[in-house]
């Protein structure tokens, strides 16, 4: 889900978030179009086994259907960098994803010269983004939704459902990127259509080498190229990153019907009755559970995504798809057409990059992914202004601070001490979830969504102070069932000890 909150034999986990989306036909004007990046069949071969081995009638096996989405790019007249132009900029941003474009927009409003480098700056982002409406309202991006729902719900089990009085929306990738790009154009940002293959650093200046022969020079290079980057460095002394992984398979589908209320999006459906006739899948799901995330647009159009909140080691795509086929069959959801499909992998937790270093990072590689939920886009949008302001203080018209002082100030704007402390709490949340089976996970979220809305909303949106996170933890323990308390005490002493030690180090 983004934007949201990942064993069979599986290949080593990729280091990059991978999404494979296709665009709907023109009759579904509600939804944006995206670039095709890889076929479903080729990825199934990569994941190690064929999905048609599922014990189900082919009538219910939507995996055999082909996505109908067609690739399409935005129609915006960007100011392109030309080799005859002066190659010197204040800031060079590598990557035109949400993080890169948002930072370019924010930095350029201070009159700072920015160049954004990407192989295809006008392509539609392939990721499916969901976000709480209030988060985008606070950013002035409230018109960048395809659809919103006034409430969300969480199915804890067959007998219990939580209703969350907080509007949720599917982000319009088309509208969001258009808005940010148009602001960049108005602010004078230049765009270079190329892939960066090398960055050289001098004391006060860096040189970016592109695959088309262009060489750009800037006072600061920002890496917004995603999880697979090689430009952002991590501490070599950390032998094991200890990341968790969120993995999901989603489809935007035309269906005969579905059982979900149209005025509520389904944040999590933890029910497992659909695995009653699949004993092998049920045993696996009881140990490493997955849930359904659903956005019902109308009675015949719905986005469905089977998601592993976090796992270590990585749960396989094949396992995810098998569980999803069984779930939809049990719910009576017959897929007639697939308008988009999506496979995503999000590394969660792990160490932060080296702070400071010559390259500034933002987005996936910078550590801003919420370690407990996988949410990142709204948070990146909210943090970009802080980074932009720090850059402006160093490279604005009245001052010229470069080199190590620049790198230190900019990195500290993204990761001040209180934000690092918060991340330790969120990482502890991830480690706790990794220890819980299906029943433990259900008990955890049953207690979590019984907290005062200020706490669960603040936790999901990364808004709580360190003291509020301590209060949340105490309140969660009080609200938890005896089983949940037992699980936390018996299963999580090591993660708790690590969190306390890390918090102590951050506080020194």
From TrEMBL:
Tagged with keyword Ribosomal protein: no
Record-level Gene Ontology MF annotations: cyclase activity; intramolecular oxidoreductase activity; oxidoreductase activity, acting on paired donors, with incorporation or reduction of molecular oxygen
Record-linked Pfam families: Lycopene_cycl (PF05834)
Localization annotation: Plastid
GO cellular component: plastid
UniProt cross-references to InterPro entries, sorted A to Z: FAD/NAD-bd_sf, Lycopene_cyclase_b/e
Key words of the record: Carotenoid biosynthesis, Isomerase, Plastid, Transit peptide
PANTHER family registered for this protein in UniProt: CAPSANTHIN_CAPSORUBIN SYNTHASE, CHROMOPLAST PROTEIN (PTHR39757:SF9), PTHR39757
Protein name: Putative neoxanthin synthase
Species this protein is from: Lupinus albus (White lupine)
């Amino acid at each position: 889900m983004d934007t949201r909150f990942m064993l069979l034999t599986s290949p080593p986990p990729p280091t990059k978030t991978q999404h494979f989306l296709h665009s709907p036909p023109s009759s579904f004007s509600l939804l944006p179009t995206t670039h095709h990046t890889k076929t479903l069949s080729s990825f199934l071969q990569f994941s190690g086994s064929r999905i048609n081995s599922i014990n189900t009638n082919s009538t219910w096996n939507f995996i055999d259907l082909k996505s109908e989405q067609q690739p399409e790019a935005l129609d915006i007249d960007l100011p392109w960098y030309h080799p005859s132009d002066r190659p010197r900029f204040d800031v060079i941003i590598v990557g035109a994803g949400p993080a890169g474009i948002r930072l370019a927009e924010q930095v350029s409003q201070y009159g700072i010269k920015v160049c954004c480098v990407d192989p295809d700056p006008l392509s539609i982002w392939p990721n499916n983004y969901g976000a709480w409406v209030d988060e985008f309202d606070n950013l002035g991006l409230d018109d960048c939704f395809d659809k919103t729902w006034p409430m969300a719900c969480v199915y804890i089990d067959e007998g219990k459902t939580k209703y969350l009085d907080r509007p949720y929306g599917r982000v319009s990738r088309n509208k969001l990127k258009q808005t940010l790009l148009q602001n960049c154009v108005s602010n004078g940002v230049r765009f270079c259509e190329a892939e960066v293959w090398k960055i050289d650093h001098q004391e006060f200046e860096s040189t970016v080498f592109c695959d088309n022969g262009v060489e750009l020079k800037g006072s600061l290079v920002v890496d917004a190229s995603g999880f697979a980057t090689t430009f952002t460095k991590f501490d070599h002394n950390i032998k094991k990153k200890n990341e968790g992984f969120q993995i999901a398979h989603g489809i935007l589908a035309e269906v005969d019907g579905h059982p979900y209320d149209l005025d509520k999006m389904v944040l999590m459906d933890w029910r497992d009755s659909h695995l009653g006739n699949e004993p092998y899948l049920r045993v696996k799901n009881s140990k490493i559970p997955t849930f359904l995330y659903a956005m019902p647009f109308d009675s015949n159009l719905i986005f469905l995504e089977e998601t592993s909140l976090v796992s270590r080691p990585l749960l396989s795509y094949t396992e995810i798809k098998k569980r999803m086929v069984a779930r939809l069959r049990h719910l009576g959801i017959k897929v007639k057409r697939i308008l988009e499909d999506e496979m995503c992998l999000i590394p969660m937790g792990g160490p932060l990059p080296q702070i400071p270093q010559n390259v500034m990072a933002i987005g996936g590689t910078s550590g801003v992914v919420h370690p407990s939920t996988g949410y990142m886009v709204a948070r990146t949008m909210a943090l970009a202004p802080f980074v932009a302001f720090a850059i402006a203080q160093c490279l604005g018209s009245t001052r010229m601070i470069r080199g190590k002082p620049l790198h230190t100030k900019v990195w500290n704007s993204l990761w001040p001490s209180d934000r690092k402390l918060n991340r330790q709490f969120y990482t502890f949340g991830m480690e706790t979830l990794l220890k819980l089976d299906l029943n433990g996970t259900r008990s955890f979220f049953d207690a979590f969504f019984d907290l005062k809305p200020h706490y669960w909303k603040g936790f999901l949106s990364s808004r709580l102070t360190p003291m509020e996170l301590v209060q949340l933890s105490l309140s969660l323990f009080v609200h938890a069932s005896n089983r949940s308390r037992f699980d936390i005490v018996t299963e999580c002493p090591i993660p708790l000890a690590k969190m306390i030690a890390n918090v102590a180090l951050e506080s020194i």
